[in-house]
Amino acid sequence: MSKNITIIGCDDYATSLANVLADNHHKVIIYTNDEKIVDQINYEHKNSKYLNDLKINQNIKATNCLLASLENCEVLVLASKKDQNLIQEIINYAKRKMIIVDAYPSLKDDLTSFSTDIIDIFKTNDILKDYAVIFGANIASEIVKKQPTCFNVCSNDIKSAEIVANIFDNEYFNCLVSQNILSCEIANSFNKVFALCGGILTGLECSINTFSSLFTIIVQSIDRVMKNFNNYSKDSFLNFATLSSFLKSYYDNDSLEFKLGLMIAKYNDAQKAIEELNYNIENLNILINVEKMCKTIKKPLTFFILLNKILYNNNRPISLLNKVFTAFKL
């Protein structure tokens, strides 16, 4: 059954999800305050700022008016970083209970689940019908080209996950359901770390053995951290959403973090690389948050400490290999 769906966000990822939903014959509207993107989606059926000249489903509409985007909304997809002011506006303008889908799940600064806060906010204001998160390997151009991929759809209530999965699922966009919201939050919070490291190793011209070994070290380091802050098990961490996202990011040479890693290796100078790429270092705040939280539990983790020293103290990137590998006795 066709639903009225509003997407909050207009980047490549948000647009690719809109395309999936429009292909499934839902009525999709994208909300963004970027008027150029609004006009291009409505009249040219593309989003060249993020997806070059790729054509998207011509039935997708866009608007810069939040009130208009929520007029008939049955399903609200949050496909951008959390903005408390925007969330409050959504609450003010919402006219009915909605299915809320968080397509940009994340951890809070203290590394605990953000989903409980989102659920509470919408439930308290009586506009939450169902809640789920959706996440997976998300190179947007491939999704728009209908190249097969799989996403996890997770909710505390498995029936809610199934409802949302049925909205998104089609022949090229497979949806797997579970109750493991935390895994999606971990995946999205740490995938930039994998991209950064993949770029550094590529810049250092490392071998496949080295790539494989460091990937395992990163996974183990995240596991050691996360089990201290959440209702957590390794089985829930090493699942489809996390591993597919981590692998994608590790080799995604189009991502900004991968390019940053390449330039750090090239210059042996993170600050020069950050300035030349005009990179917003706040995108990697997860590394600062992890080091802070490790201090609270008095469990310093060599990998995160060294990566922060490379980014903020201009340590040479080769130290990521020399010292981390020694610490793990590989």
UniProtKB/TrEMBL annotation:
Keywords: Lipid biosynthesis, Lipid metabolism, NAD, Oxidoreductase, Phospholipid biosynthesis, Phospholipid metabolism. NAD(+) binds at residue 140. InterPro entries: 6-PGluconate_DH-like_C_sf, 6PGD_dom2, G3P_DH_NAD-dep, G3P_DH_NAD-dep_C, G3P_DH_NAD-dep_N, NAD(P)-bd_dom_sf. One of its GO terms (molecular function) is NAD binding. Residues 181-321 form the Glycerol-3-phosphate dehydrogenase NAD-dependent C-terminal domain. Its EC number is 1.1.1.94. Residues 4-159 form the Glycerol-3-phosphate dehydrogenase NAD-dependent N-terminal domain. It catalyses: sn-glycerol 3-phosphate + NADP(+) = dihydroxyacetone phosphate + NADPH + H(+). It comes from the Bacteria. Pfam families: NAD_Gly3P_dh_C, NAD_Gly3P_dh_N. One of its GO terms (cellular component) is cytosol. Belongs to the NAD-dependent glycerol-3-phosphate dehydrogenase family. PANTHER family: GLYCEROL-3-PHOSPHATE DEHYDROGENASE, GLYCEROL-3-PHOSPHATE DEHYDROGENASE [NAD(+)] 2, CHLOROPLASTIC. This is Glycerol-3-phosphate dehydrogenase.
